UniProtKB/TrEMBL annotation:
Transmembrane helix listed as a keyword: yes
Origin: domain of life: Bacteria
Ranges that cross the membrane: 21-40, 60-77, 84-103, 176-194
Name of the protein: Uncharacterized protein
Sorted UniProt keywords: Membrane, Transmembrane, Transmembrane helix
Cross-referenced InterPro entries: HpsJ-like
Length: 199
């Protein structure tokens, strides 16, 4: 039986080079996503900001992974490592500050949803009251039916308000949590890159 010897063909792989390629690919993908999500910008629109910050939080792990891989690949190149460390610190602080904006905007969206539900419910209540005041306008609507419709409307409006509160709260916690966690991780990555290497 012939044995195959382990030969070195002169090919060596540099893990830092691979990390650099994957890191830049992650950054490029993150930037393309953010550019697409940003247009058309509507900074004055609360719903747009909430959606944008939620998408930013959801995709932020790709940014963190890309920056960490690039930091690893440049760990021996002091000027690049320090610049990247500073960028990580700044982006981390921006992420943490944007979480405050996300909280405020989510509370506004919740308030707007509840106000909209209340307005629609009061308009329907007004129509029911008009029908109760003038039973001759529509003889098919009995006072019992109108009372049932009013009770059903109240219970549905309350359920819709509770659902709006719950869904906005869940989305808000998710996006704020992602922004804070990735922001803190980026700050930690920046501090790690800024410290002098161990000898």
């Amino acid at each position: 039986m012939a044995s195959i010897s382990n030969q070195n063909f002169g090919v060596s792989y540099n893990p830092k080079g691979l990390c650099r390629i994957v890191g830049f690919a992650c950054l490029a993908g993150f930037l393309v996503d953010m550019i697409v999500l940003t247009f058309p910008p509507a900074l004055g629109n609360v719903e747009w900001r909430v959606g944008f910050l939620q998408q930013l939080g959801d995709r932020s792990i790709i940014l963190l992974l890309g920056l960490a891989l690039i930091m690893y690949s440049w760990i021996d190149i002091r000027p690049w490592r320090r610049k990247l460390a500073l960028a990580c610190l700044i982006i981390g602080v921006v992420f943490n500050l944007s979480s405050v904006l996300a909280i405020r905007d989510n509370l506004k969206v919740q308030e707007m949803a509840i106000t909209n539900i209340s307005t629609q419910a009061s308009q329907l209540q007004t129509q029911i009251q008009k029908a109760q005041a003038d039973p001759k306008a529509n003889p098919n609507l009995t006072p019992e039916r109108l009372e049932q419709a009013a009770q059903l409307l109240n219970s549905q409006a309350n359920a819709l308000k509770q659902n709006a509160k719950t869904s906005v709260l869940k989305n808000g916690i998710s996006s704020v949590g992602n922004l804070v966690v990735v922001g803190l991780a980026l700050i930690g990555l920046g501090q790690y890159g800024a410290r002098p290497p161990k000898n």
